[in-house]
Amino acid sequence: MDNRQQILTRTQCSAMRGIAIIGIFLHNYCHWLGMAVKENEYTFTAGNCRRLLEVMTQPDWNLPVHLLSFFGHYGVPVFLFLSAYGLVMKYENGGNDTITPQTEAPSHGPSAVAFIRYHFLKLFKMMIVGFVAFTMIDAITPGRWHYSAATIVAQIGMFNNLMPDPDHVIWPGPYWFFGLMLQLYVVYRLLLYHRGWKPLLVAVAACWLLQAICSPEGETLNRLRYNCIGGILPFALGLLFARHGRELKRGAWVGLTLASALAVFFFSFNYQLWFWAPLFVCTFTVGFVKLMPKSINDLMAWVGSISAALFVMHPITRKIFIPISRHGDIYAGLLLYIIASVAIAWLCRELMKKIPNPKM
Questions:
Q1: Residues of the chain with pLDDT > 90: what percent?
Q2: I want to staple 221 with a disulfide (CB 3.0 to 4.6 A). Which of 101, 136, 214, 266 is the partner?
Q3: Is 62 helix (H, G, I), strand (E, B) or coil?
Q4: How many of the other CB atoms lie within 10 Å of CB of 118?
Q5: CA distances from 352 to 99, 101, 220, 346 (A)
Q6: Using CA atoms, how far apart are residues 344 and 320, in angstroms rounded to an integer?
Q7: DSSP 197-213
Q8: Chain-centroid distance, C-alpha 238
Q9: 28 CB contacts (<8 Å, ≥6 apart)?
Q10: What pLDDT, in 10s, does the model give residues 169-203?
């Protein structure tokens, strides 16, 4: 195995997952609070940026909630980056996979049908456990969602991202990620598998242009960003990093990490630069795990080991504990949510181990 294939160790990849899921599941709680500054995730609202600057220049005890609400969704690009990195390591580098065991899939190239079926079932295995549990909790708690047969079938099939008005179709909201990931698996296998860098750059440029010409707060942009067009940039970066990335000296990692952090912050305040912020989120996270001591990475890696279960289960605990924070005890509700989410995710991971893995 050459240096390129060793650039991210299994622990570092797990630590990146841990960082990403911490951002996502805390964001998905904080942004439900009416007082929190809202994020620019699917559309770009300049007023959200102005409000963030206001709370940062006049900070109070709620500042962490505002920051998590505004920036926490950037954990999604990290997951897309790692998914792409793992695909290259598994399917393009002779089975030399630093993320998942080689025994999960053959090292030779699978057919498109076999590849898509395999990854659909992997996503389905994660999604169905949380979806079933959530719908039961949702049905017996205040604010029950009114499902239709079409939206249920769309969630089970993971194509609800394609339906009109996805904001009011996908429930629980974080489950839009399953449809996004399935689309990217299809795109990878049909268009990017064992291809060079030119198709990747064309895909990134085309998807950026489609978004750049949209109204910042329009429904067209909203729908594009719910789908693979909005997620192609960090996914393409993961493919390129796996194929061409190289280890850097510590000083270079320090410089890259600091520059990336600044870029994420400042790019979040301009509509056209905002499209490129996910790129720097990914480079920041890579640099962070490269620089952190082993003890921190090991802790983050443990969180990463339950990240899939934490992702599918946290909408349940949010629905239960969010009223506490909404009634004024913000951090009491948040702390109970964190404790319950981690505990249930650990139990869910053990349950998911009992479900047979799909085979290629």
A1: 88
A2: 214
A3: coil
A4: 18
A5: 18, 17, 37, 10
A6: 13
A7: HHHHHHHHHHHHHHHHT
A8: 13
A9: 72, 173, 174, 314, 315, 318
A10: 999 999 999 999 999 999 999 999 998 899 999 99
